[in-house]
Specification:
Blueprint lengths: L1 H13 L15 H56 L1 H9 L5 H7 L3 H5 L2 H9 L3 H55 L14 H10 L18 H10 L9 H4 L4 E3 L9 E4 L5 E7 L2 E4 L8 E4 L5 E6 L2
Antiparallel strand pairs: 1-6, 2-3, 2-6, 3-4, 4-5
Keywords: Coiled coil, Hydrolase, Protease, Thiol protease
GO molecular function: cysteine-type peptidase activity
Pfam families: NLPC_P60
């Protein structure tokens, strides 16, 4: 958490507009845009990893809160029997107009308030009530642990939300700069970092190393590929086995819309799904087109998009 807080204190400066805003005159060069995009991609990777770390911490805090809550419930249940036994004593004390410290201690919904009173503690010390004290203190300890765990979970959740906001801002800036770069020089898209830490992004990184390799029908690497062979080979490098068939890969994950696509997602075309590729970003995909061509990045626009599939 401390590391993430430091990151948050640094991140706003790291993504200040002056670092990515192009000069009105002259326009930034291809080299300058590529440098900006690379730096933003690196920041995005760092924020994403910190976000993932906080996700783990949140799960741990939530589990700790559940364990503490269950423990408090068990202690409360153990005390319930004692409360029932002193019920008659409480009634008698009330009828007599007095308040027995034992009854107050055991029956109180806020036992800490009673335990904090020195007179009550002294009373228990002289009345051999160690068992009752032990149960009450155990329950209090469990309740304090529960509150502490819940507070940690709340803090981590808030921090994760702030970090996610920073991550999205950097991602938007990266997309903006990348768009300018690709508009100026489309060939640069394949040279930019693949943003993302999941297996889909990792698979895309492997696939990008095959740009320029020839299309060969039925081939699945490592030097030649057809469309489904390229995606099958790329995902195999990250431990995911896909069948060498577009129709089967269509059913290998969760169907998503074009607007939900992220780098590494599978994209399919035509009603019979006879062609596919991997989404790169900025409306473009990496694919092995057809005989006589090579693995390359191309626009998705103008193709009959059938849908996307998120494998991982």
């Amino acid at each position: 958490m401390a590391g993430a807080l430091v990151a948050l204190s640094i991140a706003p400066n790291a993504i200040a507009p002056h670092t990515v805003t192009a000069h009105a005159d002259p326009e930034p060069s291809t080299k300058e845009l590529k440098s900006q995009a690379t730096k933003l991609a690196d920041q995005l990777e760092q924020l994403t990893e910190q976000y993932n770390g906080l996700k783990v911490k949140l799960q741990q805090s939530q589990r700790a809160a559940k364990v503490a809550t269950d423990n408090a419930k068990r202690q409360e249940k153990a005390l319930q029997g004692i409360r029932e036994k002193v019920g008659s004593l409480a009634a008698t004390s009330y009828m007599q107009g007095g308040s027995d410290p034992t009854v107050s201690f055991v029956a109180s919904q806020d036992p800490q308030a009673v335990l904090d009173q020195a007179a009550t503690l002294n009373f228990f010390a002289t009345r051999d009530s160690a068992k009752v004290q032990g149960l009450m203190q155990a329950m209090q300890a469990a309740q304090r642990a529960r509150k502490s765990a819940e507070e940690r979970a709340k803090q981590v959740s808030q921090l994760r939300g702030q970090l996610d906001s920073q991550r999205k801002k950097v991602g938007q800036l990266y997309e903006k700069v990348r768009g300018k770069l690709v508009k100026k020089d489309p060939s640069q898209l394949g040279k930019l970092p693949v943003v993302g830490t999941g297996k889909a992004a990792q698979a895309l990184r492997f696939a990008m190393t095959k740009i320029g390799r020839p299309y060969v029908w039925g081939a699945a690497g490592p030097t030649t590929f057809d469309c489904s062979g390229l995606t099958m080979w790329a995902y195999k490098q990250v431990g995911i086995n896909l069948p060498h068939y577009t129709g089967s890969q269509w059913n290998a994950g969760t169907h998503i819309s074009e607007g939900q696509l992220q780098p590494g997602d599978l994209v399919f075309f035509h009603s019979d799904l006879h062609h596919m590729g991997m989404y790169v970003g900025d409306g473009k995909m990496l694919h092995a087109p057809h005989t006589g061509d090579v693995v390359k990045i191309a626009p998705m626009a103008g193709r009959p998009f059938a849908g996307g599939v998120r494998v991982a």
